[in-house]
Each structure stands twice: as C-alpha cells, then as structure tokens.
Amino acid sequence: MSTSTDVKANHLLATGKTAKLLASSLAVAGLLQFACAPAQATVAASAELKAGTLGWVTTPTELKFPATTLNGLLQSISQTEALDVGDATGSGAGWNITATSTTFTNGPHTLATSATKIGSAPTVACDAGATGCVTATTTGLVSYPYSLPAGASAPTATRMFNAAANTGMGNQTVSAKWELEVPPSTFAGTYTSTWTLSLISAP
To answer: Cα–Cα distance between 28 and 25 in angstroms, integer?
Structure first.
C-alpha cells in the first residue's frame, strides 16, 4: 500500500474527528447560551397616595407682647408668632390665613383699632423632618404692612398671609412679627384682646 495514500486517509480521518468535535462543542456552547439567557417579564407597578388634610400642626396659642414701661413717647413693641401649617392634601390648591380681633382693652381704656400690624412679609421655613416641602409664596392678595382688624366686636377677618397655588405643600412654619403701637397718652395697665386666626384652603 502506498504511504502517501495512508497519510491522506489518516488526515481525512483526523479532519473528520476534528469536525465532529467542533460541531459537538458548538452544540454544547449553544445549549449553554440558551440555558443562561435571562427570563424577562414586564411588570406594572403602582402606588396609591391618598390625600391628607390641611390644618395647624400646632394650634396657635397666646401671643404675649413683652412688658413695656411707658416713657411719654410713641412706642412700638413687637412679638413674633410662629404659625405651624401642615398641607398634606397633595392638591396644590394653596391656602391662606385670615385674622381678626377685638380691641386691646384695659377696663375703660383701649388702644386704637389700628394698633396692631405686621410690618413686613412673614418668613417661611420647612419644619424639621419636612425637608423638601414647597414653602408658601404669597401673591398680590396680601400686602404689607398688614393691619389687624379690631373692634369692640371682632370685625370681618382679612387675609394676613397666603400660599399661592402649588406652594405651601408640606409642614412649614410661618413666622409673623406683630407690632403693637403704644401712644404716649396710654393709661398703664394690662391690655387684652381676643384674636381669631383661620386656616382656609385656597390662595
């Protein structure tokens, strides 16, 4: 038998085995690739966020101006009131605070019905833990200085502060600096007044 023919036959045999091994390897690789392919699914996600309420986080309490000694001159004494408002409605409707009062009275003596004012716009800041609240932005519905209505019987309340639509969302504190005018003709004594503050939905 020819040596050349044997070599060719052996080569063809080896080549055939190699081809079979390659085909087998490719088949296994294909099966592994198929087995490792991720199983995908499309899932709908939802979250229902129900509306909360609008109200005072802390109900306003007594506002006490500092004790002042009469000096024969016109004086203005001041005190800051912190009004803690919580808007959890999720509506963006805005809100406003209205105020009215009775005249400051000490027995037969009274202060003027225009004695109490807010000189400049109150400041607003998110409460602790309410990071990301949308602080209230006032609109042209309220201007400063603001004069607190007063009378023997409390007159119609007026807006002392407001939050425009899409502002005032979340818990926040409105700090209003009240000023009380004391004329030189004022009689000494303790003067009292009853204030009514209302928190209302709408700018």
So the answer is: 5
Pick from 88, 86, 87, 66: which is nearest to 77 by CA? Answer: 66
Q: How many CB atoms lie within 10 A of CB 10?
A: 10
Residue 59: both structure tokens together: 């109900």
Q: Are 162 and 198 in contact, with CB atoms under 8 Å apart?
A: no
pLDDT in tens, the chain (203 residues): 444 545 444 443 445 555 454 445 545 455 445 567 889 999 999 999 999 999 999 999 999 999 999 999 999 999 999 999 999 999 999 999 999 999 999 999 999 999 999 999 999 999 999 999 999 999 889 999 999 999 999 999 999 999 999 999 999 999 999 999 999 999 999 999 999 999 999 99
pTM of the model: 0.81
Structure tokens at 193: 């007044």
Task: Give how far Cα 32 sits from Cα of 10, 23, 35, Å.
Answer: 33, 14, 5
Q: Which of 55, 86, 87 is nearest to 197 (CA)?
A: 55
